[in-house]
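3.2 Worked example (two chains)
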Amino acid sequence: SNLSWLGYGCLKQDWTLIAVNTVGAALQTLYILAYLYYTPAKRPVLLRSLLLLAVLAAGYGYFTLLIADPRTRLARLGLFCSVFTISMYLSPLADLAKIVRTRSTRCLSFPLTVATFLASTSWTLYGLQLRDPYITVPNVPGIVTSVVRFWLFWRYPPGQDKPYRPLPA
């Protein structure tokens, strides 16, 4: 995601997008390298990482070699980044049925919800300021899903979770 938005920022010559996503891509790369170093199952992680690099190379080739017109390239890359960002913001709601069924928000992170709300709100406002729908539109679901998660934390407070009963010995 960071690399895609970095490419979008470079095409637009938007230094805010470039700076934020350069830092994000560097941190994500460090995380992946640390995970690869410390994981006991190196082969599957390495194969997934190599597959991701191949997809990244294919995407780079598509956007730089096959689309010659810079405006078309910017529009298609913006659309790609938007779809990717929307799917990222919607993914925490995959546990929605489990949360309602168990009446527990144990599988949700409150600090991550706050961070997501603040980040998506900031990017939405930035996109509105630039009048850039590729930045504005995909961040609105981040605000909406954060509000839904805040409501879930209110509806099913963490202290309300049922404690586990010890099994009889």
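3.2.1 Second chain
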Amino acid sequence: QLKLEDYKDRLKKGEALNQDQLEAVEKYDEVVHNLEFAKELQKTFSGLSQDLLKAQKKAQRRESLLKLEAEKKKLRTILQVQYVLQNFAQEHVQKDFKGGVNGAIYLPSKELDYLIRFAKLTCPERNENL
């Protein structure tokens, strides 16, 4: 654009320009218009790029929250199962299941022993001193 302005000034001062320079001066307004259009286009692309980055960050935050909630749900389920299994270690719970009393279903001794052994394998012992 500066070069074209220089040609334009030289032409106004009466200097002779070659054919290419004259053609360039004739297209000055078109070039300025195209430059302005390109600047507007660049602003639009920049805005779209910013919007896209914001949307990506928002989607990542949402995905992270969903993963966190899924992990919490898994942990909650594991803790509930551990709690149920740990209760099988208590004598009165075993008696209730052996007899099918106090709301417990009847479990044969063999099946109850399997549950007790499974509970010991899957549920860590708690240190009451901690």
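3.3 Remarks
Residues 1-66 form one domain.
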